[in-house]
Design goal:
Layout (H helix, E strand, L loop, with lengths): L5 H11 L6 H21 L3 H17 L6 H8 L2 H9 L22 E2 L13 E9 L10 E5 L20 E5 L5 E7 L4 E2 L5 H8 L5 E2 L2 E7 L6 E7 L18 E2 L2 E2 L5 E4 L2 E2 L6
Parallel strand pairs: 1-4, 2-12, 2-13, 9-10
Antiparallel strand pairs: 2-5, 3-4, 3-8, 6-7, 8-9, 11-12
């Protein structure tokens, strides 16, 4: 290939994708190149800065394993995860809103019977969680599965405790024939996302904090309905207005009411969107 002037390079790369068989892949790659090159030209990216960027991404890869996903953290803290959710979750009014997935979900969580203990030894103030899973017309969704996970009172998930031999504060609960569910867990607390790696260094360099407001994760699934990935946030939590991953939606902020015995009660109904025919 002949030597190209800077202004010719972008178009040359775009043309290299002309024969891409998948039209959607071609569209994505062309747009990616166009915007990436425009970014480099706008900031007049130096070679040293480019090498630093490559090193940053390499370190993100090195620290990622089956218990830690640094690239999801990076996507979350740059707002890309939440932007993708917002672009793809344009649901009818009345449906429960979605938010970011986060890096701590684990497939194959143990199933807990209704009323059972999700905490499984995780330290924290006891909390009863109950509600219903409904359709848009208020119809109960029998047998819906709720995948639930959260941190303990120290702000750590079970996968962040390498010596722990079993799941804690993580389970799958099934709604009954009336769409009702309930389980025992612990009160959610604010916590810092992992910031001992490249993403944490980025946050520190840009004078940002790593904290998330207190929340409980849910993934709700039922045949004939779109899967919902969301959180329920504590209304009295710090960081609701400065979530490190931009995941707070006002409709997901809820009162966790303290009871006479010092425990808490969270009541929340999930409304699922029917799958398109």
């Amino acid at each position: 290939m002949r030597a190209l002037k800077p202004e010719d390079i972008t178009q040359s790369v775009i043309q290299s994708f002309a024969d891409t068989p998948d039209p959607r892949l071609r569209e994505i790659m062309v747009s990616l190149v166009r915007h990436l090159h425009a970014f480099a030209q706008e900031v007049k990216l130096t070679e040293a800065e480019w090498f630093a960027g490559i090193d940053f991404l390499t370190r993100c890869g090195h620290i990622t394993d089956d218990k830690r996903q640094e690239f999801i953290l990076l996507s979350d803290t740059l707002g890309l995860s939440m932007l993708t959710v917002a672009l793809n979750q344009n649901k009818p009014a009345g449906c429960t809103e979605a938010t970011v997935f986060g890096p701590f979900h684990v497939d194959g969580a143990p199933q807990v019977e209704r009323g059972g203990d999700v905490a499984q030894g995780a330290r924290g103030t006891p909390c009863l969680v109950r509600g219903r899973v409904l359709g848009l017309k208020g119809e109960p969704i029998a047998g819906a599965l709720l995948d639930v996970w959260q941190s303990d009172e120290e702000g750590l998930y079970d996968v962040q405790r390498p010596d722990l031999g079993h799941a804690q504060a993580r389970a799958v609960v099934q709604a009954d024939e009336h769409g009702r569910f309930d389980f025992r867990s612990i009160v959610a607390v604010p916590y810092a996302i992992p910031h001992d790696g490249p993403v944490g260094q980025m946050l520190k360099a840009t004078a940002r904090h790593p904290w998330r407001p207190a929340h409980l994760h849910f993934m709700v699934q039922a045949p004939g309905y779109e899967t919902l990935i969301t959180h329920v946030f504590r209304a009295d939590s710090a960081y609701l207005d400065s979530d490190a991953v931009f995941g707070v939606r006002p409709s997901l902020v809820c009162d966790w009411r303290q009871q006479d015995d010092g425990s808490y009660l969270l009541e929340f109904d999930f409304v699922l969107n029917p799958q398109a025919a």
